[in-house]
Amino acid sequence: MPRLAPDAPAPGPRTADVVADAVRTGILSGDLAPGTPLREEELSAVYGVSRHTARTALARLTAERLATAEPYRGVRVSSLDDDALVALQQLRCALETEALRIVRDRGIHPPGVDSALDALETAEASGDWTATLAAHARVHLALVEAAGSPRIAEEYRRLDSEMHLLLTHVRPAYAPGALAEEHRAYVTEALRDPEHAVRAHLEHSTRAILDGRRRG
């Protein structure tokens, strides 16, 4: 496993959170590729924590599906095959549709979505794929969080981490500025007709990701 620059973990029950955050950053940045082993003993040595704390950190990453625990193989950074991608997108569709239905019925405009769209446009123009992914996530999370449902938002964040992991290693083909333009149109349509807009948007992105995989 590549060595990550460790933060000094604070003592107490949040130490496992600090370790999990550092490893999560390595996974979502692409420094830790899919299939990379995540070993308790190495995390313990790198971060100066107990094996129990390292095990707890890995359990949290496994719960987020950023890591996978397999018998006789230990814990590794997750890899999503095509079937898993489709299932993930179907679940995202259900959560995002319900959140946006609530938003529509309340007649509110999601706070933060306009600034998130601006950030996506800026990131895309810079050519920085890591920043683009972060901005893309902000757009969708702004829509979901506007529903005011902590449970929906919590579950959606977990799925978004999986999507972030996948897209870190698969870059769909978009013309310059097309991603931001697509999401501006999506937000407008989703606030009006979430049932149709979310399904159409995620089916389109699924096809783009699968095409990107085949090109890779």
Describe the protein in words.
- The chain is mostly helical and 216 residues long.
- The chain has two domains: 63 residues, Orthogonal Bundle (Arc Repressor Mutant, subunit A), CATH 1.10.10.10; 134 residues, Up-down Bundle (Four Helix Bundle (Hemerythrin (Met), subunit A)).
- The protein is 69% helix and 4% strand.
- The protein has nine helices and two strands.
- The chain has a two-stranded antiparallel ribbon with strand order 1-2.
- Strand 1 and strand 2 form a beta hairpin.
- The longest helix is centred in the middle third of the chain and has 25 residues.
- The protein is globular and about 50 Å long.
- Keywords: DNA-binding, Transcription, Transcription regulation.
- InterPro entries: GntR_C, TF_FadR/GntR_C, Tscrpt_reg_HTH_GntR, WH-like_DNA-bd_sf, WH_DNA-bd_sf.
- This is GntR family transcriptional regulator.
- It comes from Microbacterium phycohabitans.
